[in-house]
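Problem: given the chain below (704 residues), write out its structure.
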Amino acid sequence: ELINAAGGQISSHNTTQEPENSFKEPVCEWDTEQHTTVMNCFCCRFFNGQRGTRGHPTEEGRMLKDCNANGAAISEKPPTPSAENHKQRKHKIKIPKFKIGPRSPKANINTVDAPPPAELSFKENVEEGRLSEAGRQLIAREERLFQRGEDQEVAEVEGREKEEDELNGDYETLLVQVWLAVQRSLSAAPGEVEALRSAVSTIVQEEAQDGRWREVEEAPVWRPQRCRHTHDNLLRKLVEQRMDGTEEDASAAEKLSTSLKREVCNMGKRAQADLLKVVREVRACYPAEFDVCNTYARLYHQAFSDRLAKIAKSELDFNDLVYLLCWVYNYYPHDILKHKELEKNIDCEALGPLLPESVVRPLEEKYLSNKENQVKVWVSNALRKEEDSWRSGPLPELISDYYFSNIAIDVIQMIDGAMRETTAVFSNESRCQRIVCQLEIFLMSYKKSLEEFMKGKGVNIKAVLKANLVSIEQFKEHIVKFGDLLPEEKKTRCRSLLEDMEDCAYRYFLDIMRADLKAQYKQLWTPAWLTGGTCELEEQIKGHIQDCGDMKSTCRKELVGRLHVQVMAEYVKRMMKGKVKLKDRELQETAVPQLREDNERLNVIFTEEGSGEKWLQEILPKIAEVLRLQDLGALQLEVITLALSYPDLTDRHISALLHLKTNLSNSDIKRIKESLTANRDLEISQNARSFFSRVPIKWTAKIM
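Solution.
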């Protein structure tokens, strides 16, 4: 029988078992029936004097004796084959010129198998997990077999075929163990990675041997092995199997409410745990060219993506949809891939998004549409509740001594809550715009409701308006906080809506005050005014301001400021009606001090009550100066100064003001107006304000 070259044992019908600890050296055996010699390369080298043993001298005599003792006929050179055998010789494979010597490439890995104290057989190496060494033994046998096939053309066909079959079978045995080691790489204990290290070394060796055989036209039936290709396919199947085989974690099952959430969570946890295993342990078993961390990352990324895409195509409950989007945009890219150990070893950017645009876009649209409708319903219900409280009659709640409404707080909290959820789902604020834009729709409804309520005759209108002015102020502040989330054009429209509501509410109070002060306004610039001033007007103004004590301080100050503007406009309006004509210098000198005194008293009242319109205190003194001046040139200059300070001063206002000075001729007035027209283009004062547009003039005297 043939020598089992890989195992290093001689099998025969009448062999004597060698002692267990003896060094088993392969020898050449003569097949007496076939008259051919089957030679092992190790044996050839041994008989040629080329072989030395590990720690043993070459003992030709002992080995020959052992060989004869086993019944083998030894010949120093093979007999010449007969013609018949030569005809039956198998067609020779042309092989590359293998070098005798180191027969396998060194694996480019950090650690290689340490040489054993005694040479083990192929079977023993496989059993002990020394797959790299076993692979080198098979490569050596392969090289010897086909090198001999070229040198010994008379080799017996059947014996050679048997050796090839045995070698092919041993390759299959080896690769089974290699693939088992690869398949167990993610489930192996921390100390069980040596088998994987040896398996990877074997793959590297086999890839190199495949490369050497590519140089010839014909190769053994087992070449190319394509171990790297098989390895990559095995990793893909392994990853898919592990992602399909995730078991529900008990702790996760308690926290997550649906089976879909548990399934997605477990897949994500499995991906992270396995990738950490790769980085911590598996990576050290591979050479750098395998790029094993990124290889596993791509496989898990694709496997996770495929499974989520399949889930996404099913009918999802909204809560499941939200959870799925959280994994796509938040948990996976940030909690899984951004793990400090994974981030250093994996090119996360190269992985791309977890789901393709075609899959994730419908999910986004469904989420945002649902959230928009949800917010719309919430704010509509809040407004309906507020309207019901207005109509029911009771006064709004008093907080810190001022009326207060919850409408702004409720709506802002609803929108902010939806924005926070959307930001958490998508891991950024960019998709919150559609939710924030619901504020404009709400404010349009809010404005309409408030205006309709003001048209009624409810006894609580004042209190309701005072409370809602607080809400309007809160809305205005919050629009600023939205920043870029609210597009500028929508931000402008929202501000405009709020300002309209604010003006409407303040105008309601001012109209009531104007109506009450009308009688006092009529006393201005009358003969009685020249002697008594504005004492009664001042007292009534103070009374109206005190009635606003249940308004929030900021709103109260705003109302006082607007009342300040209204009172000064009414004062100037009554003046320009010309009920009192300052016919001579004496009357003018009497009216000017009274005018300045009124200005001082009124400004003291409004300043003490918090009016911020300090610019109003300059109007009456400027008008008084026009009334005081007698020199035409000085008067022209003062009128020009007044016009530059208040650009809305019209010709009608100037005519009405100058006609109070009856000692001016029409030609004087005409010259003053012409002078003003010529100087209108001068640079307007930086502190210029609009005031006279609030003073309507119906007086139509024609100046020739």
